[in-house]
Design a protein that fits this description.
This protein is α+β, with helices and mostly antiparallel strands and 156 residues long. It has 2 helices and 8 strands; from the N terminus they run ββαβαβββββ.
Amino acid sequence: GNPYNLSVNSSSFININDGYYFFGAELVNWHVAYEKCRKLRSDLVTFETPMEFDAIANYLKSKGERKEHWTSGNDLGKTGAHNWFTNAEPINIGKWAPRQPDNAGGKEHCIHMGYIYGDSTEIQLNDRPCNNDPNSLFRYVCEAPKQETISIVVWK
């Protein structure tokens, strides 16, 4: 939804199924990715269904994209409780890479999508350090808020 009635310039966003997405090309940490999406009046992507994840993964594959991309997923509130940042819902779309999330080194709290292992053939989810790690600078996917139609009644 659009709780703050923010206008969204969708010209830089790509329409995929029922959503509008922006694919940031810069390599940044999770926090900077979040800020960049907010500056576009959008949020880091939240996959509400496996079909939405597959649609974005298929778009990336169609572009030959092999880089990782940040999502809104994290367990910053409570280690091991992985939720989407934008709606606080658990990440339960069944798209984790094998043996993930693993919180390697006790410092992996933000979720990205990509070809996780050298021999990966599918785009999947994985946890990585949110910042302060040169190996955790990724591209990002922003999702525009869903547009809503409203009716206004004015009494004279």
